[in-house]
Specification:
This is Protein rds1. It comes from Aspergillus wentii DTO 134E9. By secondary structure, the chain is an alpha+beta fold. It is 26% helix and 12% strand. The protein has seven helices and twelve strands. Helix 2 packs antiparallel against helix 5 and helix 5 runs antiparallel to helix 7. The longest helix is centred in the N-terminal third of the chain and has 27 residues.
Length: 454
């Protein structure tokens, strides 16, 4: 029999009343994750009782390069059936297709640690969406171009996170991470929207990075059904921000340690018995001339971010602001789509970077420490769509450098560097693809940072 907590992962019900909803109430169902109506959003000021990521008693020296696995290229892909069909209209092969009853649980340390990271992500999104609605007034939202129906959409996205956190927690069982307290840097509705847009970007991309590697195909199936919702959230926040909603042909995936590096600084404190994570926290990377989509001329921004890592925009004001500019090609008012006359970035643009040194306390209760095993900084890795490419880094001092935005395409007609994407400072330029991107981690000096390329 499948354990009850695993079966509950297949079900869900809303935790909040739906004001003025046009559909019938959902039937009663299993219990869902809870979210306090009020909790502090302040930095952690105590002394950590535990420091560092969780670690096994023995740690290897690294992942070997084994080359292509034997038999990996044997299947002929000629359009003909190569084996007998196990049943009518059923091709041979596949995982979990032999009639075995599915069990929705973690099947390895890799599974548990990856899904636990997902729980941390879902819980912060649940809190974040509620915080923005509580922090800003109706007038604040209306000045940003968002009406009551738009605000209700944000509330509904928070309710979606109840389901996501519940599903993943039920898969993991009693040791699943719990809700924490958080600290956010935004001061305006525009900064809140950009923060949400970027947080859902690495939340989505962080899952894509490990989804295909999970030992539990059952858990991967359910996670796919939640992350496709997250993808829709990310696009909605782009539309709320006045950005083109989907400027790429393929969505990018990143390693777990990249997602944890970006997420951890905004977690203030967690319960004393909180499950800890194994993932690395890299030194933070700042983009000093990060394009600012709240400006009419977004690519000319200098020092207009409110944090490192995510590099969230600082709201433009006065004539520089595009939110209430209704000129075609210059407006960034909320809309289904916008085409901007002045692009946010372009090939050949000089990028100014600054990075922290390792050893900084970050994350829940300041109990994790940033680290790197890389050598001297030499390159900037551009991770976008299906591509991992590198540009030379000109180091101007120990923690500052510049590089030039490369000109490359995923396929002809699709500029690879677009949308909300990732960069990192590295000591080498190893050849990597979307499926083995985590092999870049030993080479990361600092980052990732979210680059607002479009």
């Amino acid at each position: 029999m499948i354990p009850k907590h695993i079966l509950l992962g297949l079900l869900g019900s809303p935790a909040f009343a739906l004001p003025q909803a046009s559909h019938a109430p959902s039937p009663s169902g299993p219990p869902v994750a809870n979210h306090p109506t009020s909790q502090p959003h302040t930095p952690y000021s105590g002394t950590p009782t535990t420091t560092g990521a969780i670690s096994a008693s023995s740690v290897g020296t690294g992942i070997p390069d084994l080359g292509i696995a034997p038999g990996a290229t044997d299947y002929p892909s000629n359009g003909q059936l190569q084996s007998a069909e196990p049943a009518p209209f059923t091709p041979a092969g596949g995982v979990g297709t032999d009639g075995t009853e599915p069990v929705y649980n973690a099947k390895s340390d890799f599974d548990f640690e990856s899904l636990a990271l997902g729980v941390y992500q879902e819980y912060i999104e649940l809190d974040l969406f509620h915080d923005g609605l509580a922090r800003f007034s109706t007038e604040d939202f209306e000045k940003a171009g968002l009406n009551a129906e738009d605000r209700y959409l944000i509330q509904f996205m928070a309710e979606q996170e109840v389901g996501h956190a519940t599903m993943l927690s039920n898969i993991l069982g009693a040791a699943a991470p719990k809700q924490c307290t958080y600290n956010y840097p935004y001061k305006t509705v525009g900064e809140f929207l950009d923060f949400c847009q970027k947080l859902t970007r690495f939340g989505e991309s962080g899952v894509y990075g490990f989804l295909g590697h999970l030992d539990s195909r059952e858990a991967a199936t359910l996670l796919t059904q939640s992350i496709t919702t997250e993808a829709r959230q990310q696009m909605i926040f782009r539309q709320f921000e006045g950005l083109f909603p989907m400027p790429v042909w393929f969505e990018v995936g990143i390693p777990q340690s990249w997602a944890w590096t970006l997420l951890a600084p905004y977690i203030s404190s967690c319960p004393a018995d909180q499950t800890r994570l194994v993932w690395q926290n890299f030194p933070a990377l700042s983009i000093l001339n990060q394009p600012n989509p709240s400006r009419v001329d977004g690519e000319s921004a200098e020092n207009e971010t409110i944090d490192s890592g995510m590099n969230t925009l600082q709201s433009a004001t006065g004539d520089d602001a595009c939110v209430n500019n209704h000129e075609v090609g210059s407006s960034c008012t909320p809309a289904i789509t916008h085409n901007r006359t002045v692009p946010l970035s372009y090939p050949g643009r000089k990028i100014e970077l600054q990075w922290e040194t390792p050893g900084k306390a970050v994350g829940p209760n300041n109990s994790y420490v940033t680290s790197t095993s890389a050598g001297k900084p030499q390159y900037v890795a551009w991770v976008t769509q299906l591509n991992v490419t590198y540009s030379p880094l000109e180091v101007t001092n120990a923690s500052h450098g510049t590089t030039i935005q490369p000109d490359l395409a995923t396929y002809a007609g699709d500029p690879a560097i677009n949308g909300t994407m990732f960069i990192a400072v590295t000591d080498d330029n190893p050849y990597l693809t979307a499926f083995n991107l985590s092999n870049i981690n030993p080479h990361v000096v600092a980052g990732p940072a979210l680059y607002q390329a479009g």
